[in-house]
Amino acid sequence: MQRIGLLTSGGDASGMNSSIRAVVRKAIYHGLEVIGIRRGYSGFIEADMGPMNLGSVADIIGRGGTILHTARSERFKTKEGRALAMENIQRFGIQGLVVIGGDGSFTGASILHQEYGIPMIGVPGTIDNDIAGTDYTIGFDTAVNTVVDAINKIRDTATSHERTFVIEVMGRNSGNIALAAGLAGGAESILIPEIPFNIEEICQKLLRGIKRGKLHSIILVAEGAASGIDIGRQVKEQIGFDTKVTILGHLQRGGTPTAFDRILAARLGAKAVELLMAGETNKMVGIKAGEIVATDLTEVIGKPSPINKNMYELAKILSI
Amino acid sequence: MQRIGLLTSGGDASGMNSSIRAVVRKAIYHGLEVIGIRRGYSGFIEADMGPMNLGSVADIIGRGGTILHTARSERFKTKEGRALAMENIQRFGIQGLVVIGGDGSFTGASILHQEYGIPMIGVPGTIDNDIAGTDYTIGFDTAVNTVVDAINKIRDTATSHERTFVIEVMGRNSGNIALAAGLAGGAESILIPEIPFNIEEICQKLLRGIKRGKLHSIILVAEGAASGIDIGRQVKEQIGFDTKVTILGHLQRGGTPTAFDRILAARLGAKAVELLMAGETNKMVGIKAGEIVATDLTEVIGKPSPINKNMYELAKILSI
Amino acid sequence: MQRIGLLTSGGDASGMNSSIRAVVRKAIYHGLEVIGIRRGYSGFIEADMGPMNLGSVADIIGRGGTILHTARSERFKTKEGRALAMENIQRFGIQGLVVIGGDGSFTGASILHQEYGIPMIGVPGTIDNDIAGTDYTIGFDTAVNTVVDAINKIRDTATSHERTFVIEVMGRNSGNIALAAGLAGGAESILIPEIPFNIEEICQKLLRGIKRGKLHSIILVAEGAASGIDIGRQVKEQIGFDTKVTILGHLQRGGTPTAFDRILAARLGAKAVELLMAGETNKMVGIKAGEIVATDLTEVIGKPSPINKNMYELAKILSI
Amino acid sequence: MQRIGLLTSGGDASGMNSSIRAVVRKAIYHGLEVIGIRRGYSGFIEADMGPMNLGSVADIIGRGGTILHTARSERFKTKEGRALAMENIQRFGIQGLVVIGGDGSFTGASILHQEYGIPMIGVPGTIDNDIAGTDYTIGFDTAVNTVVDAINKIRDTATSHERTFVIEVMGRNSGNIALAAGLAGGAESILIPEIPFNIEEICQKLLRGIKRGKLHSIILVAEGAASGIDIGRQVKEQIGFDTKVTILGHLQRGGTPTAFDRILAARLGAKAVELLMAGETNKMVGIKAGEIVATDLTEVIGKPSPINKNMYELAKILSI
Q1: In chain B, what are the domain boundaries?
Q2: How far is residue B83 CA from its own chain's centroid?
Q3: Which residues in C lie closer than 8 A to residue A259 (C-beta atoms)?
Q4: So what's the architecture of D143-254 in CATH?
Q5: A267 to chain C: which residues are within 8 Å by CB?
Q6: Is the pLDDT reported for residue D320 higher than 90?
Q7: What digits encode the pLDDT tens for the residues B220-254?
Q8: What pLDDT is recorded for position C320?
Q9: Annotated catalytic, C128?
Q10: Domain Phosphofructokinase: where (chains A, B, C, D) (predicted)?
């Protein structure tokens, strides 16, 4: 292995740049060359790529987003698109790939490996923390802290006005952000796609809170569980409370990464380079029980990553 | 003057607590007593009030919202409601009022003064910065910094995905938050209620940006100018760009106040006490050209507070 | 078990309040009563304690420090002091103790258990992350983020002036904060008590950096490895570089806890209550490989908690 | 005027980059060319300079420090050094200068103007806010917020341990940072160079606080008034209190600029370009009473910029 390719793909996540920096520096340390591919798999097809050196990754450790940019590529999903990609990979002398992204992104490189034998290692970068094979994904800790900060701010107003607020957070298939941020922020109710909820129960809890002198409440909703606006309307219909709804949206992806995400990103990126150097392929690096490990992609792609039920129960108990 | 009443009214704004602390401590320093009224004018009607001392305001200098809470009171708008309020004011021996809030809040106390002669001084606390008689209102600087922080985060994603984002911020009648945050955050377009906008012009600017190699854009919209979702749809219709829309909502009110808001709040609160002690009434304290001044309410209520056109022009020039 | 006592002891750490909240709410949920002891073991001796309810822990989830306060108690180290403490424990009907603090704090309660049989469970709260039996202590993640934020700020100046900065951080016996923050912040050199350092090597690295065009460097020093001021002087003597030294000091303890610390604090606090209810004693709760576990105090007190050597090596490689 | 030179000089201040961006964009908007000079006046002597375009200032609006770097130049203080500088200025076709820095920095360009007639405009960028002719300097608001954040964090520990903390902040000749941050952060005592202090009075205040049940105190010291360590020692000698001392140091310069500093920086930078275009010279731009104004350098350099005594008195009253 003398030259590796590096790309970010899928939704951006804070810490991706810290991981890019680690891949580049670790590779250079071991005498490898790195080619950065811009805009995900599109960059392969359009030959939008070039060499990276120590200077390419100077001063990016603390910046959100990804300097390599990211995009969806419909063409890469076709056999003909991948053939074109492979041509460019060969033209640039790339002998192995590091793909930072979600499990959809790993699938792309995995198919390329099947078809053309080019080794690839995946690095889990997504704010949702819903990938099997790792306890944490890059960007999750930052996103959760952003949501907790928003809860803090909104609680000031909720308390001052003695009202109920609904906050909708990201998580189409996963309640991880909502669960972690709700537990950390002390949300009174947490709605996640993994666990069915009952609007009447939520309303009863609101009423019990009022009786006990509680003057405000925050209902945190993962977008995959319900729409925040729907929940607000249902609460109004059931018990007549006027709620305010905030949809945090893309605010949750960016911002300077937390120390946790930077360290995770550095460790995972460096491990990916080691694996390629050791001749491995079709694996994803991850953190399990504090150790950096590699998991075969067959145990990652399409596998469930269940939420922590204990944490869900605890959040309920602590929000009495 | 031996005993003054203090209330917060209208929407909460970060820094109100710093102002409450200043009113209470300044009053106590001069030997006055302070009665805190809870939940705005409702507290008068329901006699929901009580004495405040140094301990009441310990450890609140850095907390968002208002420890006195705030609420709308329909009853206070009736003559009968105000009669009840005045009864309680007399029962508690209150001889003068400090009202922290917006110009609607000042109107309430002003009518009470007209009807019953009780002196009142207003302190401008609202994130919109749209009150005549002061260069800055309490809460504005904090809100603007919150919006700038959101722009920073969203720009990470906008850059990584090379997309256009629309961010809707508060400001029903005022573009001050949008203008200041847009200038500070480098937004490519700023839409405010004070200045008519042209969606075609905005789209042309987006296209020119693309041509010049600009990979992302942020359109900042004050809610009073347009709905962020509408703008997103219109951009899509006109030039086919898929935009993402974020509505910051109540996030903008709370959070720990900035140093600027804390200092402003302290100075204004202290001045309000001085004015009551000097026998003044029907005035609002404010900051003008760095000096703390008092303005007659007749020059405040219902008066326009125009935006700074130079800043608007500058924002345009700098976002080329 | 009907009534438990709760105290914080040793240096304060951000997240202790989140843990206090969890202990109180979890206990009340299970029908237990909680007595809060103020100022660590002093509170036992001076009977400075009282019942806590849901209201006692309202609105503390996001606040640094500890509402129960903390102090050193020389008297508690004497047999007579502990006898007095035990009298008060009995007088207040306390049947089990939760102690949030470091391993010195656990020793105190452990001796009390030996002498009087009162059950106790320890919760690791210290910014140093140097306690055996847990992968993370409460307050560590917040402290590391504070140091990384300081590195970011100082790097702006280091870059602008093209200079070398020395930053001294906490860690008398442990390099954990320095190591994590140095890796996350991209410090050029990290000096920790666990690994001997060589000032000439550090200076050679500075010179190599200069030759390669690097315009600034940050040397991060754990107080247990060396004094920042000494390092600055030695660099000056060896290679003539004028360095600037910053000592972060007590800045590192406080501040609103990160989401990570809040969640950890909540989980550990709740587990401590469960253990007391299950009749356990002389254990410390901790997080190991993502799971909340209990470890016998004999395996905690005085046991080494080695640093992660892989992370140390990685930090070196990434700072080339 | 077709081509202007731009440099930053003296200590870096957060917001300098926002000002650089405004100068470059405003100049380009009006058809001017901009030459950026690196490392302050050294860059002139070493011809370390080059053209700036829209891309040079992309993505710098929110970054601390200065992309043009800054340095002291002993050679520029000599006639021969300035002759060399002027040669390079002519070689690069520079017809006017914008200097962002403190009043020492303006002096340099002012002498150059006297000797060679090259027009120059100063932009006040320094965290100390001690320049006559402007109510605020670029970087001051950010520095004050950084200090307030530090006070918040340290107060958590001060409260938890019931102790007195001394915090030393920047300000060799000016107490502005200490005064603003002390008022905003609620420091119990504020020591500034402009007003003599009495250690006995400070100790008496500490004792009175203790008597009244106050459990902690923060003494904020501008470095120009005393050394924090000295104050700590004196308090110990006089009344036996063990204090902890934190020296914030260079932490105060960097970090992402606040919205206030960004807007100020943008407005001042743009105004500087306008003045050069209008044929002005030897002036400093500033903000006075909310308006952007120009002041002759003879009224700026060496002129006192007194502190706001009212604010000092208010801080005393509010910290009772």
Answers
A1: 3-139+257-299, 140-253
A2: 29
A3: 141, 144-145, 147-148, 180-181, 184-185
A4: 3-Layer(aba) Sandwich (3.40)
A5: 310-311, 314
A6: no
A7: 999 999 999 999 999 999 999 999 999 999 999 99
A8: 81
A9: yes
A10: 3-276
